[in-house]
Amino acid sequence: MLPLHPVAGYNLYFNFLIKIFMKTFLLLGTVGTPEIIIIALAILLLFGGKKIPELMKGIGKGVKSFKDGVKGIEEDINSDVPSK
Questions:
Q1: pLDDT along the chain (84 residues), means of 10
Q2: Which of 8, 57, 79, 81 could make an SS bond with 3 (beta carbons 3.0 to 4.6 A apart)?
Q3: What residues contact residue 47 under an 8 Å CB cut-off, 6+ apart?
């Protein structure tokens, strides 16, 4: 049976996708303290104690570079806007 309005069909499909997403999300649950501890231990076992500071240093440099790039783009956008 076809829906009376074309948008109604999309709305039903969208609702169906939302229900599936929510069921999947609820099955995964939330990440609590025990899970974070297990993840930290797994990272420690995989990379070892000597590699973790190097990894964090690289992540910090990447975040700083990203922030600098965003700041540069914001400055370019603000300089292009004519002031009244």
A1: 50 71 66 81 83 87 92 83 62
A2: 8
A3: 55
